[in-house]
Design goal:
The complex is a heterodimer of chains A (212) and B (145).
Chain A lengths: L1 H16 L11 E7 L5 E7 L6 E3 L5 E3 L7 E7 L7 H14 L6 E7 L7 H11 L6 E4 L3 H11 L4 E3 L7 E3 L2 E5 L5 E6 L3 H17 L3
Parallel strand pairs in A: 5-6, 6-7
Antiparallel strand pairs in A: 1-2, 3-4, 5-10, 8-9, 10-11
Chain B lengths: L1 H48 L1 H4 L16 H6 L1 H10 L5 E3 L2 E3 L10 H11 L12 H9 L3
Antiparallel strand pairs in B: 1-2
Helix pairs in contact in B: 1-5, 5-6
Classes of the chains: A alpha+beta (212), B mainly alpha (145).
């Protein structure tokens, strides 16, 4: 009898562990009222998503959000001559890149905020030196307005030009996790080891949400 | 009487030599303390200024930043290290047969900080060059190219 109770309890505990964990959805949201086929009203939540964009990548090819269709991806903002937080951000991101190298569902998107110097050829050289090859990690270059607006309004990362800053620009080191519906599911400080570890775990959780 | 005197002088000599060896011994440990101070301050400076690019264990970053584990390079270029830390470098280096062309930014550090961080680097990551004094750094800095 005692054994049976123990068995039941352990089954209960184990099954509660396997309950699917989900990541939160960030950003603004609004309720939209729609009618289904029978005419009954239904409330839908509309989440903030990353809008359409097109930028030049490190191969001087114009790419759009379609390059990330059906992928989850990690986005960040950086510049190649940055000597403060970028090296450590990209050291950590490269580690994640290597970890998910063989998973076609995971991609990486780094936007440069140095619109003066970081032309595609510079980005290409940077990617090569970092040890990144192929399409999995895209480094994109775009006009100041669209990149800066994208950072602040869509990815919620503060960026800016600052002549008093050491390298001429300031920016935050967030690594932003975006799902297949282009919704933000997490933001992690790319300079902090424990947050990068969390990102690794959260990528797995997010990937599991799509496993049916 | 004579025996007593000689006993006394022996005793005095013994005390004196013990005192002397204590002095010499404490001299050495003052140097060791100085070195330990350089190492610990150097480590803090390394974390603050160098680690981003060169890594926690001096492993470097891809081909963007060279590793600091090439003991031969650090030894043969010791006199230039202080200048590189202070003024940066755009010459590029070849480390372990690999070329690094990236630019190293300048670090506006005080001479004592340069001495300490250089001692830390040249005595970590497999390097073992010992002390590099403030005075020597000042001398090396005066002949930066």
């Amino acid at each position: 009898m005692k054994n049976l109770a123990f068995l039941l309890i352990s089954i209960a505990i184990l099954s509660s562990c396997t309950n699917e964990k989900k990541l939160p959805i960030y950003g603004e949201r609004e309720a939209k009222i729609t009618k289904d086929a029978s005419g009954a009203e239904k409330v839908d939540t509309v989440y903030q998503t990353i809008p359409a964009w097109s930028f030049l990548n490190q191969d001087s090819v114009m790419i759009t959000q379609d390059a990330f269709k059906n992928k989850i991806y990690i986005a960040d903002f950086f510049f190649t001559s940055c000597s403060t937080i970028c090296p450590v951000m990209h050291r950590n991101l490269k580690m994640i890149f290597d970890q998910f190298k063989d998973n076609p569902d995971v991609m990486f998107l780094s936007h440069t905020i140095d619109f003066k110097y970081d032309k595609p050829s510079v980005l290409k050289k940077y990617a090569q030196k970092l040890g990144v090859d192929g399409n999995k990690w895209q480094f994109v270059y775009g006009p100041k307005d669209s990149i800066y607006q994208m950072a602040e309004q869509n990815y919620l990362v503060a960026v800016g030009e600052d002549s008093t800053a050491r390298d001429g620009y300031i920016h935050q080191g967030w690594l932003v996790l975006v799902d297949k519906e282009k919704r933000m599911r997490g933001a992690y400080d790319g300079t902090k080891t424990e947050q990068v570890e969390q990102l690794k775990k959260d990528i797995v959780i997010l990937l599991n949400e799509y496993k049916k | 009487m004579n025996i007593r005197n000689s006993m006394r002088s022996y005793l005095l000599f013994g005390i004196f030599s013990a005192f002397l060896s204590c002095m010499i011994y404490s001299c050495q440990s003052a140097e060791e303390i100085e070195y330990a101070k350089y190492m610990s301050n150097g480590k803090d400076l390394y974390i603050a200024h160098c680690q981003n690019c060169h890594g926690t264990n001096g492993e470097g970053l891809g081909e963007l930043a060279p590793p600091l584990t090439d003991t031969v390079f650090l030894k043969t270029n010791k006199a230039d290290l202080a200048c590189i830390v202070k003024n940066g470098s755009n010459k590029g280096v070849i480390i372990n047969g690999k070329k690094y062309e990236g630019k190293m930014p300048s670090f506006n550090l005080a001479t004592i900080d340069i001495a300490q961080v250089t001692v830390y680097i040249t005595n970590s990551f497999g390097n073992k060059q010992g002390m590099y004094t403030y005075e020597q750094v000042a001398k090396d800095l005066s002949s930066c190219k």
